[in-house]
């Protein structure tokens, strides 16, 4: 079904479906194995112990690659639209792409360095992934408004900005509550020390993560009218 989509719309569609599956599958395996409590664990908690750690690492790395490809196509799309409309500076478009690619790098770090094995590196990767991701979708929302009404409808722009605002609002308490947790563990139970901080931070983390997913979902329509062509030139020696 993805291959039947016009243009390159299958790329963000694949990113959204694959990333959703990565979160859900690793969560289900971790809960069934008894490694985490069902009630709102951290996303990373569901990919710390085997067998879910292998699934989580593999699928999140693929998600990071798909996100990078999606962001690059989005960059090319804006550059093409900008040729006739001149609604944004090319340097701003490139800066937004670089911020997004930083977030993809953070995702790769999170997937590669498990939470309990190398917690400091894992936490840095998570901070880069979520922080850069929030900045990226906010900048993309602003660019979307600048491209209205020719290249985007105001309805889509409002949706993107709403998702960006919710993600930004959730990102701040996610960091604040996480910083108050005095131990690194995954088997949290209600009533123990720092559980409330963990619970609130985890809710915010899932909110931001699915905010990214829903944001990329809005790219599908834009990508339907855009196709990539690879041209080759043969030169005689």
Q: Total number of β-strand segments?
A: 0
- Which spans have pLDDT < 50 for at least 5 consecutive residues? 230-237
Structural class: mainly alpha
Overall mean pLDDT stands at: 91
Main beta-sheet strand count, sense and barrel state: none
User: Looking at the structure, what is the overall shape?
Assistant: elongated
Number of helices in the DSSP assignment: 7
Q: What is the helical fraction, as a range of percent? A: 55-70%
Radius of gyration: 19 Å
Tell me the distance between the termini: 44 Å
What proportion strand? Answer: under 5%
- In N-to-C order, the SSE pattern is HHHHHHH
Number of domains: 1
Transmembrane segments: 7-33, 53-73, 94-112, 124-143, 155-177, 197-220
GO biological process, one term: regulation of autophagy
Domain CWH43-like N-terminal: 8-225
Protein name: DRAM1 protein
Describe the structure.
- There is one protein chain.
- The protein has 237 residues and is an all-alpha fold.
- The protein has one domain (9-221).
- 69% of the residues lie in helices and 0% in strands.
- It contains seven helices and no strands.
- α4 crosses α6 and α5 runs antiparallel to α6.
- The longest helix is centred in the N-terminal third of the chain and has 34 residues, at 52-85.
- It is elongated.
- Residues 230-237 have low confidence and may be disordered.
């Amino acid at each position: 079904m993805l291959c039947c989509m016009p243009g390159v719309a299958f790329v963000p569609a694949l990113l959204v479906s694959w990333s959703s599956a990565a979160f859900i599958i690793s969560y289900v395996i971790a809960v069934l194995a008894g490694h985490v409590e069902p009630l709102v664990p951290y996303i990373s908690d569901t990919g710390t112990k085997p067998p879910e750690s292998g699934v989580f690492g593999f699928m999140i790395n693929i998600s990071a690659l798909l996100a990078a490809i999606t962001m690059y196509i989005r960059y090319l799309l804006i550059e093409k639209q900008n040729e006739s409309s001149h609604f944004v500076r090319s340097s701003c478009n490139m800066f937004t792409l670089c911020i997004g690619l930083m977030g993809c790098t953070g995702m790769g770090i999170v997937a590669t360095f498990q939470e309990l094995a190398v917690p400091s590196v894992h936490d840095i990767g998570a901070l880069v992934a979520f922080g850069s991701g929030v900045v990226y979708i906010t900048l993309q929302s602003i660019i979307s408004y600048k491209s209205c009404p020719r290249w985007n409808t105001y309805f889509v722009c409002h949706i993107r900005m709403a998702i960006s605002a919710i993600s930004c609002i959730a990102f701040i308490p996610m960091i604040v509550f996480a910083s108050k947790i005095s131990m690194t563990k995954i088997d949290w139970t209600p009533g123990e020390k720092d559980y409330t901080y963990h619970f609130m931070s985890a809710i915010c983390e899932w909110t931001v993560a699915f905010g990214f997913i829903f944001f990329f979902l809005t790219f599908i329509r834009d990508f339907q009218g855009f196709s990539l062509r690879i041209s080759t030139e043969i030169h005689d020696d």
